[in-house]
Amino acid sequence: MSYWSWDSSLSVGVEVIDGQHRRILDYINELDVARSSNDREKVSEVLMGLVDYTRTHFAFEEDMMKQAGYPLSVSHKRVHDAFVAHIDNYAVQHESGKDVTRKLMSELQIWLTNHIQNDDRDYAPYASKILNKSWLTRTLGKFFG
Fold it and tell me: Which segments constitute the Hemerythrin-like domain (predicted)?
């Protein structure tokens, strides 16, 4: 049984973003498995993967919001930056020998649920327009280019 399961309440309705959010959720579940097996090396590996993937996901979102002209993109980026700093603090604590996995997983679940259901859903209509336009432009280019 997984620590956290994806459900429709976490969907923003943009396939690529939902897929990235699912991957973050998978990392959290992998972190739980590593914690449960008391495999500190695996916890480190998953934690670093989670941090790296989250940064990449945030960069993708921020670029997409900027391209789409989302009016709250600057404040959304600030929220991302604060979250990354918070998670980096957990990574430092882990590296110093503290077991932070349970607390981290709990905070991630709460934060991500709130962030996805509120902040990310707000930009979804903008993202859909830019992503659909990009798809349409590429498709039309294949036929008429």
Answer: 13-127
Over the stretch 63-76, which tens digit does the pLDDT of each residue have?
989 988 999 999 99
Confirm if 120 and 80 have CB atoms less than 8 A apart. Answer: no
Q: Which two tokens stand for residue 124?
A: 């979804």
Is 22 within 8 Å of 132 (Cβ atoms)?
Answer: no
CA 42 to CA 109: how far, in whole Å? 20
CA–CA distance, 27 with 50 (Å, rounded to integer): 6
Angle at 63 between CA 91 and CA 80, to 5 degrees: 35
- Tell me the pTM: 0.86
